[in-house]
Amino acid sequence: MDTMTRIEHALRAAMAIGEAPGAPPRLAAAMRHAVFPGGARIRPQLCLAVARGCGDSDPALADAAAVSIELLHCASLVHDDLPCFDDAPTRRGLPSVHSAYGERLAVLAGDALIVRAFQTLGLAGARSPLRMVRVMGTIGPGVGMPFGIVAGQAWECEPRVALSDYQRAKTGALFAAATAAGAEAAGADGDAWRALGEWLGEAYQVADDIRDVMADPAVLGKPIGRDVALGRPSSAIEQGLLGALEHFDRLVACAIEAVPPCRGSAQLRELVRMESERLVPKAWSVQITRDHAVATHKAAVRRPSAPTTAP
Ligand code: FPP
Ligand code: MG
After folding, report:
1. Which residue ranges form the domains of the chain, and what is each CATH number?
2. Which of 3, 18, 186, 295 has its CA 20 to 30 A from that of 29?
């Protein structure tokens, strides 16, 4: 079974746990809307790729780790789109959950998905309970306080934050949990795999900032220009597009470098390379570099020349 089919299959099974006749049907529909159809499913892909690289000796637990991370990610997007945060009308090319089902059901759908994520992990722990406890101990902090994605979002409510602290918590923490949990599900040392997730997560957030400026909203499936409109910390704003692009390239190189030696290391490096090109297409790099060169040239031409002194 290829990785994407494996992920969709496991997600459907996890969502079915909570569907029963007599349950509130609109909440069930709002939860499904949050999860299907998905985005790139990059976090569960990464989790399973690491589990495979480490031998994949408990595939059911690896699936549960991947699903749990994706459900938590989906929950976070439902809440992030709410009027009290980004007030986004669309997500993945469809109405956001609060636009389709209202704010109250969107809050509840996010809550129920968080619970489902941990329920799914618990149910997969029969074969190796100790590994499951380790995986849960990795995924929890990737989400909560003090350094998980909830903490990352909370920095938006503070008057000041260092951009890299914000990016590390808001995005890097769940990526790091994905790589570490993938290793732990296969019985390997999660800590050895953290750096890969951390670099990749930070790169992903920088790419998201670049996409907020460069992307076509119809292709992206969500509005652009929100970071400027809402005054969010953003690499594209703080460093300029060229600075953000250079930062992104450095982070991707660090991520590739951080892949620990293992059976699947070549495929993992290839996954990181391919994902980086999907996030920031080569054509954008060319355009950003060219626009910067044109702007620099225009500024130089406009600059008045120094007065010449008579001999
Ligand atoms: C998207 O960021 C949002 C996140 C990466 C995390 C949001 C986290 C929360 C809302 C905390 C609650 C967490 C849970 C588990 C319910 P973005 O706005 O930069 O990207 P976007 O353009 O895709 O919206
Ligand atoms: Mg948002």
Report:
1. 3-290 (1.10.600.10)
2. 3
